[in-house]
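Before relying on records like the one below, remember that each one covers exactly one chain. Contacts with other chains, cofactors or solvent are not represented anywhere in the record.
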Amino acid sequence: TRIKNYSIELWKKLGQPIERVTMLRWGAYFHDIGKLAVPVEILNKIEKLTPEEWEVLKSHTLKGAQMMREHEIEWLRDAAFIVEEHHERYDGKGYPYGLKGEEISLEASIVSVVDSFDAMTTDRVYRSALSIKDAIQEIIQGRGTQFNPTVVDAFLKLLHEQEFKWN
């Protein structure tokens, strides 16, 4: 829910058309639905993933998009591209397609920043959460390489306006 809510706030901050926010809402909400098809041992593994396990984990974007595209509800089908692209990187080194820059939808670029920040500031089985300050530094370091710079700038403004609370 936090990723969905922050994604919507970021969409508004970027001045995007409100009639397209429903698509973003569902793409953000279901961005990791493909992890349902990833074995729990891989999702919860503490040690470094093997190359084979990493490939299985990365497949969650395609599996999730497929689940969405096969759904009977049209607005879920329409949001599948966000699920598919949310691990693409601005520099083209992401997955599953290696999309670069503006080839990546704005919706997926938003979910990428919000999801990454949320992951960094949340305890995981394999590491403790970063502080808000350290997570912000990571986002800034990824500006223009991992993340769309316009989205990063708007995200930082949004965090500032919310007095750096993440809830």
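Residues 31 and 83 are 4 Å apart (CA to CA).
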